[in-house]
Amino acid sequence: MVNLRHVTKRFRAKTVVDDLSIEIQRGELFGLLGPNGAGKTTTINMIIGGLLPDAGTVTLQGSGSPRDADIKRLIGIVPQSLALYENLTAHENANFFGRLYGLHGSDLQHNIQRVFELVNLTDRTKDRVNTYSGGMKRRLNIAIALLHNPSLLILDEPTVGVDPQSRNAIFDSLRKLKAEGCTILLTSHYLEEAQQLCDAVAILDEGKLVAKGTVEELIAQHGGQSVLTVETTKGRSRIETDAPVDAIVRIHAEEQILSLKMESPNLEKAFLKITGKHLRD
Amino acid sequence: MKEIITLTRKDLQLLFLDKTSLIVTFALPVMLVALIGTVFSRSFPSSTGITSYDYAFSKVMFWGLIGGVASSVASLAIEKNSGTIIRIQLAPVHKVHVLAGKALACVCVILISSLVTWVFASVLFGIKTASHVNLLLICFSNAVFFAGLMTFLANFVHTERAAGALSWSVLQLLACFSGIMFPITLMPPWMSNASNFNPVTWAVKAMETVLWRGGTFSELWLPVAITVGGGVFFFALSAYLFRWTTQNA
């Protein structure tokens, strides 16, 4: 669906994206991860055709250029900054952006109803956006991007500043879209969110691709071992192991377990091992 | 064309929801006509055939339009620097559609502002014209000029405050060289000559002609051509200069 081959982008002397090659399969939920300044937003801007790479190629749907009108229609964008008119109602915003995509009449109204249902906003569509909570605005931001039924949805930090309830609503919407066959590319600061949602991820650091693969592969390769903290009648111990269940069974056979805590390998640990820093550094 | 109408409707909708813009665009011109007409009320004996309010209207109307132009410049500048521009850029619309939508909204605002001012001024101060059709033509040609100028100015600002400052500065400078601030007959020769290259001079002349004498086509075609031509020139220049704003992080 999306193919970046040896893409490089510079702003004056600074190389923001350096020889990046990634491929996103149709129907995949792909995460682009990295700290601030890693080049995620620049990469997205190149995918949507807002920026041209200085070297390399970006193609969509086989060989299409992101700047082709037919290709542009396939993309829905959820920018990091809210792309909404706050003085208009949610319905007026949807009407405006839908019409820009050539939707009119019952088709437009049907699509508006569908996307508002998807993000669970049907009861506040006549209210002005400036009366919405941060989480509702984020959900509306997503809804507007879906009006024209894009087959590729790009979300740039869609859950920044969102309360847990809205975050879960956004996750549910993304899972539904994926189930409907939509290809999704998202950037995120939250590794646990990427781990929950994504089929595959690419990790960028200072413009360079430092790792890519499925979430399971990255965790298996770089996530380290499970850590068991066990308290028994003989005292407390910390055990690092690849087979935590076996270890628990063994301890249980020898002593009485009073409490048990297990930390599984995760994407956060994998990220720390790969980049040497926490994502929020 | 549908895209342009959609963009125009949205801009007008946003303008009518903004109380400050409404006051600056529609109430200010009426207040200025009343104030300046009152100041000059003793300077126009009835034998001249025109009243002080006729005189004030032909000139002050332009000060009133500055509010509409400034809010339109701000609208375009803000749009270019907000998240909405990314969506619009990705939609199947050309940059000329975006500019044309903004320009058409500006034309509508100026025409409505002119109409509101005219209705109030004619009801309250008895301002008349021999030809309403010619008055409408002049209002339209002036609106085209200011809309074109608005799209051009919007290329150089990024914030609402800068948009207001630039609009007022440029339009005041144009007003200085047009006979709005002081009569052209009082200007030194170089300034008087320079005023001929200012479309606002022709806009004022045309408005005076229509208000004071009704005007004929032969009197009006040149000012109309200059103002419309100026508007189209500035629009074309801004279409050339326009760049989609993109984030670089």
UniProtKB/TrEMBL annotation, chain A:
Listed Gene3D superfamilies: P-loop containing nucleotide triphosphate hydrolases
ABC transporter domain segment(s): 2-231
TM annotation in the entry: none
Entry keywords, A to Z: ATP-binding, Nucleotide-binding
One GO molecular-function entry: ATP binding
Pfam families membership: ABC_tran
Protein name per its UniProtKB record: ABC transporter ATP-binding protein
Organism (species): Chryseolinea lacunae
Lineage: Bacteria, Pseudomonadati, Bacteroidota, Cytophagia, Cytophagales
TrEMBL record, chain B:
Domain of life of the source: Bacteria
Name the record gives this protein: Transport permease protein
Bilayer-spanning residue ranges: 21-40, 60-78, 99-127, 133-153, 165-186, 220-242
Membrane topology designation: Multi-pass membrane protein
Keyword Oxidoreductase: no
Organism whose genome encodes this protein: Chryseolinea lacunae
Keyword Amino-acid biosynthesis: no
Subcellular location: Cell membrane; Membrane
InterPro entries: ABC2_TM (IPR013525), ABC2_TM_bact-type (IPR047817), ABC_2_transport (IPR000412), Nod_factor_ABC_transporter (IPR051784)
Domain ABC transmembrane type-2: 20-245
Source taxonomy: Bacteria, Pseudomonadati, Bacteroidota, Cytophagia, Cytophagales
Family under the similarity heading: Belongs to the ABC-2 integral membrane protein family.
Keywords attached to this entry: Cell membrane, Membrane, Transmembrane, Transmembrane helix, Transport
